[in-house]
Structure formats: C-alpha cells, structure tokens
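Q: How would the structure tokens look for this protein?
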Amino acid sequence: MSHEVIAPSPWMILPFALLLGAMALAPLLAARWWLRHYTKVALGLGVITLGYYFLGLQASARVWHTTHDYISFIALIGSLFVVSGGIHIRVKGEATPSANVIFLFIGAVVANVLGTTGTSMLLIRLWIRMNRYRITAYHIAFFIFIVANVGGCLAPTGPPLYLGYLQGVPFWWPAEKCWPMWATGVGILLAMFYVVDKINFARAPRDVRERETAHETWRVNGLQNLFFLAVILAAVFVDQPVFLREALMLAAAIGSYFTTEKSVHEANHFNFHPIREVAVLFAGIFATMMPALDWLNQNAHEFLGQNPAPGIFFWGAGGLSSVLDNAPTYFGFLDALFGSTGARSIGELLNQHALSLLAISVGAVFFGAATYIGNGPNFMIKAVADQQKIRMPTFPGFVLKFTLPFLLPMLLATWLIFFRG
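A: Here is the predicted structure in token form.
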C-alpha cells in the first residue's frame, strides 16, 4: 500500500466537525432552517476544504481520488435505491415478534450476498409494511443495527470489507474468521429486539392487528428489477476501465426506472428526495473528512505505538467509523496497522497480525451502526423512514435512545470475548 504523503493542518478538521455538529443539532434546534439550507451548509464547508487542498496543499490528486470514491459511493447507493424502489412485496399475516426475528436473521444472512446496501434497500420497505400497524423508531434502529451493518461482516460484498479485498485480503477470509463475532453480535441484538418487540406487540390492540392484516395476500411486483439488481452487484467487482462500474450502475438504474410500472412506484411511495438529501450531505462529508483521514494516516502509528493490542484497533477503528464513515476509516486503520507493525504485505499481516486485522474489520463493520452516517445505508434507511412518516430521533437522539442502551452492550461483549487480550 502506497499513498501520497499529505500533512494537513489539524485546524482543517474543523469544517468536518462543524458539518457533523450541524447534522446533529440543526434538525433539533432549527428544523425548518436546516431543511432550507442544508445544501448550502454541506457544500459550502466542502468547498472550503477543497480550496485548501487545491491551493494550500496543492494535493489535486488526493481530491480527484476522493471525488472518484464519492462518485462510486453515490452510484452504488443511488442505483440500489432506484432498483429496490421498483420491487414491491406484499406479505400475509401478522408481524409477530418471532416472525420479525426470523426476518432480521434472514436479512443478516442475505447482507453477505447482496451486501448491506443492497439488502437494506431491498428489504426496508417490506420491513416497514410488515409492521405498519405498530411501526416505531426502534424497528428502524434494529434494522440498521442488524441488516445494514453487523450482519454484513462475513463477506466483502460491500464497504468496508470490500476495500480489504481490493488490497489482497482473500475473499473468504472474513467468513472464515468473523463468523464467531457475527454470531455473537447478531445473536445479542436479536435477543434484545425480541424482548422490546414482544412488549410493543402486546400493547397493540388485537382488533387493530386483525383488521390491518385480514385482507393481505402474498404478492410480488417488479420482478424484472432482480435482473438490474444483479447487474449492479456484478458491477461492484468491475475495476477497469475507470467509471465503467459506475456507468453500469447508472444504466441499471435508468433501465429499472423506465421499465417499472407507475403503480409499483406509487405503492412504494417512491420519489428521489431521499437520494438527493444523501447525495448532498455525503458530498460535504467526503470533502470535509479528507483532513481527518489524512491526519490519521500520518499520525496513527505515533499514538498507537509498536504492535498495539487488538482491542485498541477494535475501539479505535470502530469509534471513528461511527462518524467518519466506516469504509475510509477501515482503510486508514489498515494503513496504521502496517505502520505500527512494520509489515510489508497483506500476507504478512494475515500470518503475524491476523487478530489485529480482524479487530479492524469487525470494529469498522459493527460500529458503523452507531450513527446515521457511520455507514452508507444508514442514512438512506432513515430517509425512507422519514418519507413514510415514521418519527425517527435526531442524530444525538439516535445515539442516546438506541446506540448506548442496545448497541454498546453488544460491542462490549464482543470486545470482552474476542479482543480483550
């Protein structure tokens, strides 16, 4: 792994901190103002950072690399959003706590085939419809925890493990090494969800449940979109020529949109507002987080020391994945692992420092669930939930109501069992 040496001023991390602060507090303190001006805030702070890199550091190559990463990210997220919006699945019967647990477990398994992004975009609307007569924010939070993040640590079919695969980590290595952590994390979260959902289910009046589900039948519309979904997933592994992958994804999205019946889009309440919001906010995030990542790459080995314990990588990569997006954070800590161990190849890391690499992998994946921006699908799921009038908590509210009481105990258990030594 070789990278251009860039040493940004620590002060240039401030635009990123301001953007995170605005995303966390503005919807709570000034919701209408934020709705009107979030584009100006995100892009304005991004322009400040880009100007610094172009004019101050003269690091245009770094900017173009980040631009390519952003285009790849939004092409994947956007195309999956469009294609999944063309598939409408109607289920039959009550969404009991047991049925919900089975559904989430299946989602956690499928996330390793379609990737967390593809699985989330395919299943989130079905999840909402299944529980529509008693849907609450915790249904969305546990979907983010299990399907969009923790469930996807067995295969490099999406970020962040896809970056490790591109650097030479064998395709089946995560499945071979991560399955005990996967089983522990998913199992603990499903047990917590079952208890919470059983209480919620008991509170829902039985006559309402029966009335809402009395006339339901199994039905699937838009099956042609499975072809477009397969095109997108295959395109993930196309690396050359530049932008062919993104072009294939865009073509699949266009094909899906124009071959899907209007009635299917209407049944899914489909429009482009959620993906527009994600595109704007993550444009600002990708731009402003460059100084934070570059500073991390340059200085991580100094505060990590030589051969740090795996737990440091678990909490370090995980904690920053909560706010820096877990894909670039994984890459940054992979760099830090090379620097702190003196390893010269992925093969050497796998042979001599496998537990530390495993800690980075699991930490980046698991902690991606901690905030709305920790992993790409999270914000998309929130946007779909907002669109369907589900009252979701603010950025800090999500952390206080769900991350600390539910996700954190699971993370502590994972650390104690696997990475404490």
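The chain is about 75% helix and 0% strand.

Residues 10-419 form one domain.

Upvote if useful.
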